[in-house]
Amino acid sequence: MWPLTRIPLRMTVFRHRAGFIRQLCSSMEPSQAATDQSNTTKTDEPSILVEKEGNITMIGLNKPHIRNAIDSEMGRQLTAAIEAFEQDSTASVGILHGLGGSFCSGYDLSELANPDVKPQSVILQRGGVMGPTRRNFKKPMICAITGYCVAGGMELALMCDLRVMEELAVMGFYNRRFGVPLVDGGSVRLPALIGISRAMDLVLTGRGVRAKEALDIGLVNRVVAVGTGLGQAYNLAMSIAKYPQMCLNHDRNSMYYATYQAKSLEDAMEFELLTASEELLKEAVYGAEQFKQGVGKGGKFHDIKKKSLPDWELQEIAHEINEMPKPKSKM
């Protein structure tokens, strides 16, 4: 299990007592938390909660009474929230998480059971049923997995770049039991992540996957203690957001192209090269100048950003340097 780090005290998710109670629920076993929540219904709160802390955007699924199952309307709201994050020039990394003890139990089957709803109209939504699942995001997105992350909820997790999973959480395509197909990228992304043999096992059997196995097969990137999923996802997001974003997103986009779109090795290599724009190279030159001045030397990853000082402090530093006694020249 990955070592715990200090969680920022300014996390906005803990501002209200209600949020604190929801966070406590994640410390239960998935089945216990889900049972306790099943008797509670909340219709006065928004289905999607968006909070921002610096350049990190947190997008929360907020239907804990049904383990954050997503219907068509909630899927459209999630799409709008993610698109707003992508268009926000001050936001670098996003976190997708669930409130109330579980990440997401998948598509809300009660909608599909409604005789007035046509299954084709649900499945054929342009962007995806569970959200904008039929494309890659424009910026890095981390999934904080707590409690149940199953069926369409697992497809949501797969569309994120990285996954942080609490040690008592469970993943799996539980929709296999009811004949509900994967239509939000699950059968496309999973083989690319863990290989077709392991993916076939999970897709055909629908069995649950616990945290240790998920980490071992590369399904998730971090396993953390119960109750720390969102905080550890936030810490991971901050470690990514501190880097030059233009370069980071170029390399990210190149990997996605090579994995899903490239026709050959030569095609992938050409994409990597030709998308290195002049503006991107200017960022690289600036980084080289910073390194020349001593920033990041010795393999250091912390304190790599140039600190902006107010004019008065710069003037003071310059004055102190000028006032320093000069060494006397030897005769």
TrEMBL record:
It comes from the Eukaryota. InterPro entries: ClpP/crotonase-like_dom_sf, Enoyl-CoA_hydra/iso. SUPFAM superfamilies: ClpP/crotonase. Transmembrane segments: none annotated. Belongs to the enoyl-CoA hydratase/isomerase family. This is Enoyl-coa hydratase.
